[in-house]
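Handout, tutorial session.
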Amino acid sequence: MRCYCCSSASFERCCEPLLNGTKSPKSAEQLMRSRFSAYATNQYEFVINTYTREKQEGLTVESLKQSADGALWFALQITPPSAQEATLDTVEFTAFYFENKSLFQLHETSNFLIEDNQWRYHDGTLHDDCGKIKYGRNLPCLCGSNKKFKQCCATKLR
């Protein structure tokens, strides 16, 4: 099975070892991808554990579950940084999800820190294009499968 984070690797080789703790993320992008996969598979304990200590305060599995309730996360696109913007601790991404049979996107530039020799998510800046979007059924699927959207991830709405 292809990984939830839309990399070209299988879930077993990509994010699963990070989610089950047998491997640690080696970069901010790898942590971002694994956090997306955790949301896609409802592994909120992993999400909490990958925040910085400062940001973990007040978070609970139940509060994350409640905030994500009804969302079906299905595609992640990492925006490659320009040469001027490239830093090791920042990742710009767009995550796509369905909620109430509508399509939404979350576009964020995330900041990561190394804490206790582990990459951790600290905070992020949301872009103005977050929210409900329209996407053509005959366009290539957002997940990068090279199929039409209507023949790929849009089938998850049925």
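The second record follows below. Compare its token runs with those of the first.
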Amino acid sequence: MAVRLDEMDRKILAELQADASQSLDEIARKVGSSKTPVWNRIRRMREAGVILRQTALLDAEALGLEACFFVLIRTSEHEAEWQRKFLKALRERPEVLEAHRLAGDIDYILKVRVANARAYDTFYQALISEVRIYNVTALLSMEEIKATTVLPV
């Protein structure tokens, strides 16, 4: 269920998404409020689950993770035990940045960030050794055109 947010909440969220390291004073100044009301709103939005956590965004290429693969997975297994093992395997692999269960012909799509094709193959071999997969298609991203963590608030 969506949480009710007013315009001030949305301004605060926009500032936090732009740079969560800003001080309360900076955020308050930018949204036209004072520090205490801004802090109370942030606390309320944390308690309501609107703000999940604050983190740092890192440059993958600067860290040597130059290859981004989108991995399409089809499975013939739909039992709870297979799914449990599969989800556990994905959660334990730091290369998997995102995993989504899909409607349609493809069952799952993964976003995998690795150093190169050889590193992807190592990831792939490890994954198929842990769980049985019917079909895997890996697509190498040639260029990242848009990537954001900013939600439209």
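Points raised in discussion: Residues 99 and 110 are 4 Å apart (CA to CA).
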